[in-house]
Amino acid sequence: MPELPEVETTVRGLTPVLAGQRLATVEPRRADLRKAIPPDLRQRMQGAVVTALGRRAKYGLVDTDRGDTMVFHLGMSGRWRVDPAEPLAHDHLLIETEAGRRLALNDPRRFGFLDLLRTDAVDAYPPFAAMGPEPLGPDFTAAYLLDALAGRAAPIKAMLLDQRIVAGLGNIYVCEALHMARIAPSREAGRISLPRLERLAEAVRAVLVSAIEAGGSTLRDFAAPDGELGYFSKQFLVYGREGEPCACGGAVKRRAESGRSTFWCPRCQRS
DNA sequence: CCGACAACCTGACGGC
DNA sequence: TGCCGTCAGGTTGTCG
């Protein structure tokens, strides 16, 4: 389920369980997810104290007092289960703290992965090195977008999904942000005016912030033994709503492009 | 540079 | 009931 807000909610949910805690056991249940799990992950994480948790784009970060950072990516179907009553199929990593809290990283499709870095080398991690700014950070501005999109003929939707332009957006929140900004997904990225980019940057921030706030309200569910970390699909205005009415009176349309669905309202998202 | 497509993998859902 | 096709939040690479 994980775009930036889901990963942020996940990290916030893991923090009270892990921060400051010593890891009694760290047990990979298989050798690989999308990529091989580092063979020394257990040895380097077990017995370490978690000093901080963080997030970069859609990646979760777990720092330890040994100078290591465990990176997790949830792919399409990954989630952490907190204090699970019993193991489930697709629990690929089990963690228990000395305080007796337990975590299971569950990922049926295994598009996610785990990695282990030196904390001082996180910025040089290849997936991060070429990444654009955080959309909720100070560098994500209309002026930045104007520069980053200059000369680009691709549709704005494709550019917002490109992690080198801005880091952390996925299909759902790109559709939602373009709708809020009233910009057509197919609009040529390099030809959007500064005022409209201002509207777009603000829409991206607003969509993410409200999703994180909504996610925050599920932290209790998240922490429950069988907790689900769900999308707040009820608050989506276009995603998954093909044929339903838009607030403007138009009808939400859907188009498949390169294997992904785009949802938008042609009435209020004109060019 | 751009778009299309495939690959990785499982599960949910609808139609018949 | 069950079988089959379709679709799903991401990332990476190839090909024209």
TrEMBL record:
Cited InterPro entries: DNA_glyclase_Znf_dom_DNA_BS, FPG_cat, FPG_Glyclase, FPG_N, H2TH_FPG, Ribosomal_uS13-like_H2TH, Znf_DNA_glyclase/AP_lyase, Znf_FPG/IleRS
Q: Which reaction does it catalyse?
A: Hydrolysis of DNA containing ring-opened 7-methylguanine residues, releasing 2,6-diamino-4-hydroxy-5-(N-methyl)formamidopyrimidine; 2'-deoxyribonucleotide-(2'-deoxyribose 5'-phosphate)-2'-deoxyribonucleotide-DNA = a 3'-end 2'-deoxyribonucleotide-(2,3-dehydro-2,3-deoxyribose 5'-phosphate)-DNA + a 5'-end 5'-phospho-2'-deoxyribonucleoside-DNA + H(+)
| Domain called FPG-type: residue spans | 237-270
Residues forming the Formamidopyrimidine-DNA glycosylase catalytic domain are 2-112
E.C. no: 3.2.2.23, 4.2.99.18
Catalytic residues of the enzyme: P2 (schiff-base intermediate with dna), E3 (proton donor), K58 (proton donor), R260 (proton donor)
Residue ranges annotated as coiled coil are: none
| Keyword line | DNA damage, DNA repair, DNA-binding, Glycosidase, Hydrolase, Lyase, Metal-binding, Multifunctional enzyme, Zinc, Zinc-finger
Q: What does this protein do?
A: Involved in base excision repair of DNA damaged by oxidation or by mutagenic agents. Acts as DNA glycosylase that recognizes and removes damaged bases. Has a preference for oxidized purines, such as 7,8-dihydro-8-oxoguanine (8-oxoG). Has AP (apurinic/apyrimidinic) lyase activity and introduces nicks in the DNA strand. Cleaves the DNA backbone by beta-delta elimination to generate a single-strand break at the site of the removed base with both 3'- and 5'-phosphates.
Cross-referenced HAMAP family: Fapy_DNA_glycosyl (MF_00103)
The record's comment on protein family reads: Belongs to the FPG family.
Q: What is this protein called?
A: Formamidopyrimidine-DNA glycosylase
